[in-house]
Amino acid sequence: MLSIQSEEVSRPSTWMPALSSHLCFPQRFQRISLGCSCRTSLVIHQLRLFTKETVFLLWNSFNDPLFGWLSDRRFLSSQPRSGAGLSSRDVVLTRVRALGWHGPLLALSFLAFWVPWAPAGLQFLLCLCLYDGFLTLVDLHHHALLADLALSAHDRTHLNFYCSLFSAAGAMSVFASYAFWNKEDFSSFRAFCVVLAAGSGLGFLGATQLLKRRIEATRKDRGCPGLVMDGGVCEEEPLVGGEEAGSITLGQYLRQLAHHQNFLWFVGMDLVQVFHCHFNSNFFPLFLEHLLSDHISLSTGSFLLGISYVAPHLNNLYFLPLCRRWGVYAVVRGLLLLKLSLSLLMLLAGPDHPGLLCFFIASNRVFTEGTCKLLTLVVTDLVDEDLVLNHRKQAASALLFGMVALVTKPGQTFAPLLGTWLLCFYTGHDLFQQPPVTSVGSVQPWPEPPAPAPVQAPTLRQGCFYLLVLVPIICALLQLFTWSQFTLHGRRLRMVKAQRQNLAQIHTLNIKMV
């Protein structure tokens, strides 16, 4: 648009030169004025975009601990006048009811992207914040259920196994969306989104109703077959409402976390893991384009991109049985060592082996995402240790998951920024740089010719290769160091599990005595 306007100014009507000479208003000043107005509008547009990004960044960073605190604060504080209080089964039912409400709202917030109902910029910001908020609520309560329904590592890995299985089935919608996508006409894709949102909402309602009935059925069956999870939802002890329980403020809770050594080492390791996961998801298409575009077709690249969302869930179906046998700590350490070994091998082999390069790009993303999903089991162990160390009446599952997300969110934010900066620093290629436009007030009639492509291509390809292999090496070294300081495994983990089980039994004996 800027170049078209400049051309119109450079070819005025026949009476314009005479008028310009009499009014002493040279044509060049018109060009400068037009250029200033265009720059002003561009600055205003960038400020608006920056404001929206800042609002979403703040909301995305703080909604996890905010919702976690709002969800679990009443489990941590006492209500002396409330009598019996809440049992562990009531806590689980509360989380299931929350999922029954927030799940359909998450589906509606997804659908709101595709129906115009407000100015484009405002609608995008509101829809993004709504979707992220409901997604956070669903994730917090869903992860908290893993810690509240089960206590032993065997039962938790069993639940996580089926979670990964159905997550992989749900991720198949990525491939179905390709059949409806048409950038010229969105009507069929909108219809697909409506069906997908309706199916998701109904799925949330049906699953929560079935789970609610299953949990309520344990009231009549004291044996609790199938849901006996080592002191899980079958216990009837009141966990909130004891007179000896004290109220816990947010400041006190944060001070307790600051003295929780295993929590600090874990979030340091998880911060690097979240950074690596989002680095791979952001630069995966770039690596395919500049490292494998000469060896794979466009459809193959699209298939690899789609399968990268499904494969981590299928990958966990193999690693979760290993976690039951060897423990989550050993499996995660083995995956970190595997990531370091494959990266060093790829660095020594170089970028001229397309088969090995394709395997490394795919496996790097799949194993990294799979490790992120296994770390959920580690957070549930931290929930147990937090309960034992601070003598809580009820585990603050959702709140602890929210605090982990708060500390690790910077990795999600800085992954694309740092990767882009490293690529620009090494190669001089800016991914966000637009083609050069001739300045309106410039005396040069033509822009400078761009550098020839054959000179730039090898440099950019080499930069992508080193970015691909050096980032996993550095991340793996940092993670292996922090993971070696994590002590919640082996004998200590068994001791924490036993103490939490004993606390549940003590509460039950106290009720029977009364």
Automatic annotation (TrEMBL):
Primary location class: membrane
TM stretches of this protein: 98-115, 121-138, 159-181, 187-211, 263-284, 296-314, 326-349, 465-488
GO cellular component terms attached to this protein's record: membrane
Keyword Membrane applies: yes
Localization per record: Membrane
UniProt keyword terms in alphabetical order: Membrane, Transmembrane, Transmembrane helix
Topology with respect to the bilayer: Multi-pass membrane protein
Entry keyword Ion transport: no
Protein's name according to its UniProt entry: Major facilitator superfamily domain containing 13A
Organism the protein comes from: Rattus norvegicus (Rat)
Native organism taxonomy: Eukaryota, Metazoa, Chordata, Craniata, Vertebrata
